[in-house]
Write a structure and sequence with these properties.
Number of domains: 2
Structural class: alpha/beta
CATH class of the largest domain: Alpha Beta
Largest sheet: 7 strands, mixed
Strand content: 15-25%
Strand order of the largest sheet: 7-6-5-8-11-16-17
Radius of gyration: 19 Å
Helix content: 25-40%
Number of strands: 17
Number of helices: 10
Length: 330
């Protein structure tokens, strides 16, 4: 029997299930993936999220389809549909590009590649955590944005993985958790993961970050990434750019943590990164309650781009990188 289990994903002998992250922290709801269209909907609605994990989910579902006997042309159509489900997170495209060449080699080969990519992500997370550990001083006050732990990866996470590794090393980090609009991934998910890991933290509204910097209460900023361009410009959850500007003004180190699968050498710079526009309902409504007047138009990008000039370094599975030129040679 072939199995793989992550915090928010399970692959069990040809069946794929995901933990619905929209239901957290109130409920742990596991959902069986029923079709390619179903997985696309789960990805687009952020039931499953995180640049690494949506890529892992996509390749594992191709293994599901292969084991069901779907022919190679159908697998390639499914791969393309999954590729188009989220435009910003390049991990999805990178992992599909790696599995696509074996889609006509039979179910065993497709599954073996998908499982290898899962295992690789676990290892990448561990390498990122070790590479980032020297950045965390004893008792460091770290500000983070969005959610970058075990929920959006197959392993321990990226930026949050560094923090939990520091906790294990006895460095007692303290974390300022941005609530992270529009879907409160910091409030719902990062606070949840830090609580589970026993890491001291406080939740704050995103717009409170400036006052924390101004009062000298932030020692380090650690965030994740959905795409790193060839010049080091980095796309991450909207609000990240604001933190980078604040960090530069107040002299606080600002680091991005991401696996090399997040690097897109074909993308010349931030201007070429597609930025997903989210629905108006995410900020105009809270459940069934209308927050803004009916008909209000919105600007609701899912991501923003931080220029490489504002980034102190990138913590990757290849080590700590402090020169953006390194991405040209990936």
């Amino acid at each position: 029997m072939t199995q793989r289990t992550a915090t928010a994903l399970r692959y069990d002998d040809g069946q794929l299930s995901i933990l619905d992250q929209r239901a957290l922290p109130a409920e742990r709801l596991w959902v069986a993936v029923e079709s390619t269209e179903h997985l696309v909907q789960l990805i687009q609605s952020l039931a499953i999220r995180g640049a690494p994990l949506i890529g892992i989910a996509a390749v594992l579902y191709l293994a599901v389809l292969a084991r069901k006997g779907e022919p190679a042309p159908a697998l390639k159509i499914a791969s393309q549909a999954l590729r188009e489900s989220r435009p910003t997170a390049v991990n999805l495209m990178n992992l599909l590009d790696r599995i696509n060449p074996v889609l006509d080699q039979g179910a065993a080969e497709v599954e073996a590649m998908a499982l290898a990519l899962f295992d690789e992500d676990v290892q990448l997370c561990d390498k990122i955590a070790e590479a980032g550990l020297p950045l965390v001083k004893n008792g460091a006050r770290i500000l983070t944005h969005c959610n970058t732990g075990g929920l959006p990866t197959a392993g321990r996470g990226t930026a949050l993985g560094i923090i939990t590794r520091a906790q294990e090393a006895g460095l007692t980090p303290f974390v300022w958790v941005d609530e992270t609009r529009p879907l409160w991934q910091g409030a719902r998910l990062t606070a949840y993961e830090l609580q589970q890991a026993g890491v001291a933290h406080r939740l704050q509204v995103d717009s409170a970050a400036a006052s924390l910097f101004a009062s000298g209460q932030v020692d380090l900023v650690l965030v994740g990434a959905d795409r790193i361009a060839a010049n080091g410009d980095t796309a991450n959850k909207v609000g990240t750019l604001m933190l980078a500007v604040l960090a530069r003004h107040y002299g606080v180190p600002f680091y991005v943590a991401a696996p090399w699968t997040t690097v897109d050498p074909a993308c010349p710079g931030g201007h070429a990164i597609p930025i997903e526009e989210r629905s108006a309902e995410e900020i105009c409504q809270l459940g069934d309650r209308q927050l803004a007047p009916q008909g209000t138009t919105t600007y609701n990008p899912g991501f923003d781009v931080t220029p490489a000039t504002l980034i102190s370094g990138w913590v990757t599975d290849r080590g700590l990188i402090t020169e953006a030129a390194a991405f040209h040679h990936s």
